[in-house]
Amino acid sequence: MSSNNVLIFAPRDEPEELLKPLYEQGVTLTRGNPDWQWVKADHEDEFIAALRDSVGTMGSMVRCCPISRRIMESAQRLRIVAKYTVGVDDVDLEAATDLGILVCHAPTEANCYGVAETTMTFILAMLKKVQERDAAVRAGRWREPVLATTFLGARVSEGTPGITIGIVGLGRIAQRVAQLLAPWRIRLIAYDPYAHPSAFQLANAQRVDYDTLLRESDVISFHVTLTKETLFMYGEKEIEKTKKGATIINTSRGKVVHEEPLARFIESGHLKGAALDVFETEPLPMDSPLRKLGDKVLLSPHAASFNRGGELRPGMIWAIQSMLTAMRGEVPDNVYNKEVIPRWRERFGGASLID
Q: Which positions are annotated as active-site residues?
């Protein structure tokens, strides 16, 4: 085996022309088992055996076998985990940081803006009752009062202020959503304790605390990464505080929203409905209570960024460049766990494995 082995932990038919820069530097690629991504079983030992001699690993999502501390500890030469995607919740970031391993992600325009466009689609589909109206026509019904929808924007001539949309998390995706909402003349509020004040100004969003956002928003859209802090940040207590009749949008990570109380509060009428691209368990179990709510929920198979001509290809390019940079003993520009950089430089800085 080459001394410069890289494991593709979640193979996705990577085009050979994209991998060429790695081959040109004498890198040997090995590929993991696709079952690690999709089949719920104990794959950790198999993952460890495949990674043991690697200097780097890259891929998309591997939630059925997350990259754990034990996996990373087994690979003494591992210096980088490079994701094709924005999310890194399938990597033990604390362990990677302790071990001096870079975790790089790929917040590409294709990925981020694809999610933003899906978010807009969800908002409009839910508030304009696209599903309900289609079903009504197919059933021979016509312009019934129940098919009246929500007018989103302000109507200045009538003094109607427009609805309030609350954004939780104000990163690249949320800022793009704000740009797309700008012409609608809605009131935009946002909660993000870590965002710079200028981000709120650029998004034309009023900065509020989380409780205020819950109380005042007609639509709440989640755009946060999954961390210990955001795990089930929208649960029963938060739903109880939410404005009656609000609509929930989640295109971030499934475990940000607790599905059981969400379904229950939709069924009771406290919440108008929800549009979800992500779920606590994926694929969505057949016995999920969300499946029983009809057109009160809009469900999507974690595909918000799944677009022709985009999706993972830009992320693959970014991951490959990050891999080569780290193999040269340099720090890539898309490190997620930035606090690891001093420790990483102590271990690998300037120690190039390639020409």
A: 253, 282, 302
